[in-house]
Amino acid sequence: MPVVTLLVLAGCKKDDENRVQLYPDGPKASIRFLDGLPSPSQGRAGTIVTFKVMGLKGKESKFKFLIGQLQTEVMTVGDSSISVRIPADAITGGAAVEYDNQYFFGPEFRVRGNLLIDPSFVAFNGAKGPILDIVDATSVAGSYVIAGSFTNYNSLASPATPVYDIAKIDKTGTLTAANKMLTRTGTEGGVIYSITPLASGNYLASGFFSKYNERGGIYSVTRLFQRAQLDTMTVDLVNPDPINNPNDSKDTVASFNGGVNGAIQYAYETDEEQIIAVGNFTEYRSNYYTRSTKANKVANRVLMNQVLKMNADGSLDSSFNYNLALHKGNPGGNGPVVAAIRISGGRLLVVGAFTTFNGQMASRIVCLDEWDGAISTDFNTGSGADNAIGTVTYNEETDRILLTGEFHSFNGVPANGVVMLKPDGSVDQSFQLRSTTNGKVTYAAQLNSGDVIIAGTFQKYDDKVRPGFAYLGSDGAAIQGYNNTGTFNGRIYKMIERTTDLGYPGVILVGDFNKFDNTDVNNIVYLEIRK
Amino acid sequence: MNAINKILSFALLLLVMSSCNKSNYQDGGTLDPVFKGTTFDYLESRPDVFDSLTKVIRLAGLEQALKSEEVTFFAPPTETIQKTIRIVNLLLKSYGKDTVYNLRQIKPAVWKKMLSRYIFKHKKSLTDYPQVDFLNVPVFPGQPYVSYGGDVMNIGVKYADAGGVQYAGERSLYLSFIASLSSPTTSWISSPVATSNVTTSNGYVHVLRFATSLNITNTGGLIVLDFTDHYFGFDPFLFYNDALDNGIDR
Fold this sequence. Notes:
heterodimer; A: Immunoglobulin-like; five-stranded mixed β-sheet; five-stranded antiparallel β-sheet; B: FAS1 domain; eight-stranded mixed β-sheet; 10 strands
């Protein structure tokens, strides 16, 4: 012990305490925004706004002052403040100073425009996971059913009333209290791409799943009652051991006995109450209960590609897209199907990355007759798209189709990834998408008024900063006064129009996004369009 | 207990005395951080780490900038480029398209745009950059700089804690891509520097860290990436979009 003490003492000699500073102090910023909002903190274009910022005095004409990445006119520079005028095309966004190849970011200024998030729609916490479809609820007017791949909605799920993949919301964007969906477990790792109201008032859920509410034996499509319970029936089975397991001679199964071996992107009910499903699959499947045991269900398998029609009980309609001579479906597209939509005249529009369909030339788009699945002759797209098509939307009111994708021309007409078609397949050249910078348009849809909304990964539209979202006229030009929204971040999958409480047109957007107008949102937002 | 203490202290004394033998100590000198040559020469001298990077620099036509201009270069190692191409191929495959097997197939404009995010027209070492605290960005934001290609990138030095004292520990450099200028403090995709302050005749090289595993989960057709790893161009989906937009050669 004394030795250690000696050692410690020896180590404490004064001249060893030569402290070296390992790192010099870090540099300090020459320009600094002070705490606090600008005054005023929001306003329309032309407003003069004062920001609190240090270090700009003496650097006049050497720096740029930006709001939402748009250079502003500097009015006066003080010791700790600067006054600027908001330019005409400004968007909601942060202030910034660019000086000597450095950026200094400041507080946000909200530019008020005619397009704004409706505050009465309280879906602030939104869905925990993407919403892929929204439709009008069949039971209650003004309510909607959303479906997708989420595990909670507005943080309202509880162990007693869980929310999985499907929910019914009212016009304020919250779960309907009286008419809740009884989901229990949803698709368990699966996803609902499409929810379709049926004439009976029930819903058809389709997507990519093998289970719904703990009930297996489902092939990506099933029918749900109005409150999302699975439509079931009891069937007789073969029971190999009736003495020990008397309960195995019957089973409760989904009453829609049909489906596919892959994913269904889009499904709907025809006027004859039959189901048409479009997706990426190679087989139709149903369960053959007469020869099944409880543990081992025997599946009927029919080779069917990408498009098929089923009867209301789930059985295959062999008069649709089916070759009776070969006893299998037609070959379909030579590439994946990405989306589909029903258009006027009882026709089905299918888009994707294929170049032939059922052996015929079809450049990434094909229109099928809903009656027998034959390629429609009154829809001609000529040479079609020169690259994959990603989305398709259709407005019944204007009878126009909007496509987005990776193409650069459509039927010989230059198109920067978005094109509008007439119901006969010809390009509607009155709509011209302008240039986009640093990204693509991933969604385009026309409103009943004729205006078009686009969203995507672009940062600029028509050389003006429009981060991810733009509101266009029917000619494709951004309408001034409607394009002051800040950053949109994500992807829109579906929209549905609804008049706001104040009587303005409005639109609910759903998808997989977390920011709209530089405000945090969760996959659903309701916009008011002031006129 | 006392006996053990005595033995221990004796052992310690023995250890101290024996280890302090002068002849066993070899002075290796201080490590010379200066590379004799240009930034590009340095990258070429380490093909084990920068093989693909030098190829990309040549494809992007930025060789001269790294040879003669005064620049600070955050070097993304080969693995980051490899991983990004793998994701591009995964996406291409999912759309039924041919994959990329040669870096030359992607247009020079894309390489230039992405590579420019790593080059800055100044000569700064770790100590020349301000502090960044990712948990307290409003107070320690680092400093956003305009990169060689015009993109705004944030550079900052993270001060680690040491012995319970805040910011007293080792410092490490971070390069962050500001994905959205509209939310300049919350949209960062950050990449840590593994080796800083390699001094060359025309600037500094800071080598970015890379992960060797490809953390991709593909659930129901949706590709989910682990953004704690660095990808070339920071966002591989944007890289894919740009590559496709500009056309991939066959």
